[in-house]
Every structure is written in structure tokens, then in C-alpha cells.
Design brief:
This protein is mainly α. It is about 70% helix and about 0% strand.
Length: about 170
């Protein structure tokens, strides 16, 4: 994972920690792109929730809303963790766009099956990014952030499982 430079932490926001400044920076630069990606995935999931149609409307509509809620909750967890170790986090939509690796989706019309496929791919991408960030946290003595990311990874893998199973229904079988 390519680290992204973080904003300097003003002294008034530099929470005291026993982590060295380079450890805080490494963790901050690993977690902030996750925060940005979670925002991007939240918006994409809500977009699909709002623009669903077809015979599975109710089931997908409710599932996507449940997924969006979990993703949004992870944003606050990760951002507050960055602050607890003395880093700073996302400041704006433009900051999100600088850090995000999940691509926006402005398509006019997407089939429900394609929505499931795209969300499955994006959640799988998030899982990989989370695993990479856990490694950074472990290398920089931040087991608390690593533990929180492991919980978020578990939730992400649950979403992957559900989306994977939905995608199985869209494949032609012999």
C-alpha cells in the first residue's frame, strides 16, 4: 500500500501517546485512506440502495441499507482511532477524493445484479486494504488500532459473504 502524506498535527490536537511520531505517522497514513474508502463505499452503497429496481427490490434495498450503516459506523471508529493516537484525519470531500481508492460510480442505470457485483468487488478491495493496514499497525506497535481494524475486517468479510452468495444467483448454471 502506498502511504499518503497526512496533514501535520497542530500541537493542540497532538494527543499524548507512547508511540513515536514516525509510528503515529505510519498508522495515520495507513488508516486515513481506509476512512476515505469507507466514505466512498458508503456513498456508493447508498446510491445503489436509492436506485434499485426489479423483483429483488425490497431484499436488496434493506441489505444495502444495513451494509451502508455498518460502513458509516466504521468511518467514525477509524477516524477517532487516528485522533486517539495523535494523528489527524479526513477534513473534507476533496481530502476524501485525494485518498480514496474505491472508484466513484456515476452510472445512470445499473442492473441490480451489476450493483451486487460492484459492491462485492469494492468490499473485497476494502478487505485487502484493511489487512495491509493491520500489518502497518502491528509493525508500529499499535495493537489497539490493529484490533479495531480486525473487527472492521470481520464486518467487511460478512458483507463480502452476503454479496458473494447473492452473486451466485446471477450466474448461469448447467
Amino acid at each position: 500500500m502506498q502511504p499518503v502524506k497526512s496533514f501535520a498535527t497542530p500541537p493542540a490536537l497532538a494527543t499524548t501517546t507512547d508511540l513515536a511520531s514516525q509510528e503515529v505517522r505510519a498508522v495515520t497514513e495507513a488508516v486515513n485512506p481506509l476512512v476515505a474508502d469507507a466514505f466512498a463505499l458508503y456513498v456508493k452503497t447508498k446510491n445503489f440502495h436509492w436506485h434499485l429496481y426489479g423483483p429483488h427490490f425490497r431484499d436488496y434495498h434493506l441489505l444495502f441499507d444495513e451494509h451502508a450503516d455498518a460502513i458509516l459506523e466504521s468511518v467514525d471508529t477509524m477516524a477517532e482511532r487516528v485522533r486517539r493516537i495523535g494523528g489527524t484525519t479526513i477534513r473534507s470531500i476533496s481530502h476524501i477524493s485525494q485518498l480514496q481508492t474505491i472508484r466513484d460510480d456515476n452510472s445512470t442505470m445499473i442492473s441490480p445484479d451489476e450493483m451486487v457485483t460492484r459492491l462485492l468487488e469494492d468490499n473485497a478491495h476494502m478487505a485487502k486494504m484493511i489487512r495491509d493496514s493491520i500489518t502497518v499497525c502491528d509493525k508500529n506497535r499499535d495493537s489497539a488500532t490493529s484490533n479495531q481494524l480486525q473487527e472492521i475486517l470481520d464486518q467487511t468479510e460478512r458483507r463480502i459473504w452476503f454479496l458473494f452468495e447473492l452473486a451466485q444467483g446471477t450466474k448461469k448454471t448447467s
